[in-house]
Amino acid sequence: MCGIVGYIGSRQAQDVLISGLAKLEYRGYDSAGVAIRNGTHIEVKKKAGKLANLSTLLEGAPLEGTLGIGHTRWATHGLPNDSNAHPHATEDGRIVIIHNGIIENYLTLKAGLIERGHSFKSETDSEVLAHLIEEAYSGDLYEAVRAALGQVRGAYGIVVTHVDHREIVAARTVSPLVMGVGEGEMFLASDVPALLPYTRKMVFLHDGDMVVLHDDGFRITDLAGNPVVRDIEHIDWDAEAAEKGGYDTYMLKEIYEQPTALTNTLIGRLHDETGEVNLDINLDPASFKRISIIACGTAYYAGLVGEYLIEQLARIPVEVDVASEYRYRSPLVSENTLAIVVSQSGETIDTLEALREAKKHGAKTLGVINAKGSSMTRELDDTLYIHAGPEIGVASTKAYTAQVSAMLMLALWLARARNTLTDEKAKELLHAARELPRLVEEALAPERVEAIKKVAEKYAHARDYLFLGRGVNAPTALEGALKLKEISYIHAEGYAAGEMKHGPIALIDENLPVVVIATESFLLEKTISNLQEVRARAGKVIAILSDGDTANAVHADDVLYVPRAHEMVSPIVNVVALQLLSYFTATALGKDVDKPRNLAKSVTVE
After folding, report:
1. What's the DSSP call for residue 244?
2. Which residue has the higher pLDDT, 542 or 423?
């Protein structure tokens, strides 16, 4: 989710780059850097921290040149410091690259490069690309980049320049890139806002596209070198709409970013061929006898999914605590306890204090965190970063699904270490996890979204809602209810479906919409029985069903179909429908979904 800007033309590149990066700083603010070609060499300046630090550095000694590339970083591999900031250059400084994404096989590639005499200045996976391009270079920069990309596995938006060539070469897979077409100048960025001050003519690159930019135009090919045609589109967005990617709100944009966020969370960590998970965690997974998961709000519900997955797969007892209550109940903690704290921001004060309480009693601590350099990351024994990118909407969407996918990986990591999962079952689950970005993309298909919107508008004026789920999807019901409460202000409750008859059934009448998560699972028959209990009392049933399940559709007033998914990963797919249901309910009521009343993105007071 880092920001990229590139320019070639007659303007001073530094001005274009800094202006564009300022509009993309919401995508990454751990560090920033620029590389500008002045004809005889490429000069690189980069600085840890916010873009203002780089701007201050350049004020005293501006870089001259009309070709340049720039970057704001959201750190993945390597700490957010000057050395790990982009751009990265080869030792002789002749080739410079910037890269968004993750190179899965970078350690293997790096070892080979070191054996062949290359030395590295950073801890990043990205620097490997510069050295691969250098090895492949024999006078044609485009071919060198193409050859290097043929060796890598992973996600990338890569931009490259060479001191001997007045051109920029770029390519993308997963990480977005868009070109801006000007008169005698070309622009490149990871998002439209950076380019709007200069041009409204845009070319959106697709996965597998490579492009060469010159002063007077561009050419696009696929990774095999075959020519590709992409239309030039005229963008009419204003600056605010552009920052939202053309979506009406940040929340909707972030809902649609979930396939990419999931890719960034999972990539490089799953090894299907062996059934192993590599999380780069130094804690001993076989040493723990108990696990405590501690979190607030949406992150708490991700923890509840984690409880189910860890106990099912790793066969280790798990407790999930609301962070604000944890330290006041005198928790039983020992050196054999692993305390897992879950937080998007890493700054949530209740969770931070709970972390300190667990450490005080001798627990080992692990964080499932989105923001690098946050307060929690400085106090944890180890951290599993979810790499979801900045989340601006107050109601969490992509961070939640990324947190749940991280919980799945933790469950698999623990299970493999404890020998509670066969190779065959591990491979099955890893395959299911790898399918998640595609399945969520399918869940966001236009016809599905339109169906959800119609149902949301049908029940928008309901005063109350009930959400029901079972097993691993019981927390999904809780999260669905929370989303509706947060942004529409409709009273909503989430329950394990079997608990309905122990109290909540008294609420059911002809005015109550009841969302029942009834996707494919070993508890489906029991869930349908609970659904029938709602129908028998005239409740309005909105059923979330797996594609093709027409048999159970007859039991519902309205049906929302979601892609079929392995039960263990289904919460991530199913919650997308609930996010959209809440979103369209709130917009039908005219609510500000990005800034719901009384709520803050990061809660830093008790």
Report:
1. T
2. 542
Using pLDDT thresholds of 50, 70 and 90, give the confidence band for residue 443: very high
* Axis-axis angle for helices 423-434, 436-443 (nearest 10): 40
d(CA 205, CA 225): 15
What is the model's pLDDT at position 605? Answer: 41
CA distances from 489 to 120, 459, 463, 481, 517 (A): 53, 14, 9, 11, 22
Neighbouring C-alpha atoms within 13 Å toward the C-beta of 502: 5
Q: Please report the pLDDT score of residue 500 as a whole number.
A: 83
| Selected catalytic residue, list 201, 458, 526, 601 | 601
Q: Residue for token digits 């409880």? A: 307
State the Cα–Cα distance between residues 57 and 43, nearest whole angstrom.
13
Q: For residue 462, what are its two tokens?
A: 């309901």
DSSP 8-class letter at 93 = S
321: left (phi over 0), alpha (psi -120 to 50) or beta: beta
| Among 2, 46, 47, 591, the one annotated catalytic | 2
Say what the pLDDT of residue 373 is.
66
Q: Span 294-303, mean pLDDT?
A: 96
pLDDT at residue 26 is higher than 70? no
Active site residue 121: no
Is the pLDDT at 469 greater than 60? The verdict is yes
- Angle between the N-to-C axes of helices 127-136 and 106-115, in degrees from 0 to 180, rounded to the nearest 10: 50
Q: Is the dihedral of CA 82, 84, 85, 89 positive or negative?
A: positive
**The token pair that represents 557 in the structure block:** 């007033």
Q: Is 296 a catalytic residue?
A: no
Closest CA to 260 of 436, 88, 4, 96: 436
Residue 494's alpha-carbon distances to 80, 198, 401, 477, 490, in angstroms, are 40, 49, 18, 5, 13
pTM of the model: 0.77
122-176 per-position pLDDT tens digit: 988 899 999 999 999 999 999 999 999 999 998 889 999 999 999 999 999 878 8
Contact 170, 214 (CB under 8 A): no
3-class SS string, 354-392: HHHHHHHCCCEEEEEECCCCCHHHHHCCEEEECCCCCCC
Sequence-distant (≥ 6) Cβ neighbours of residue 180 within 8 angstroms: 186, 187, 188, 189, 195, 198, 199, 201, 202, 203
Look at residue 576 and give its three-state secondary structure: helix
pLDDT tens, 242-262?
678 788 999 999 999 999 999
CA distances from 499 to 100, 467, 471, 574 (A): 46, 12, 12, 20
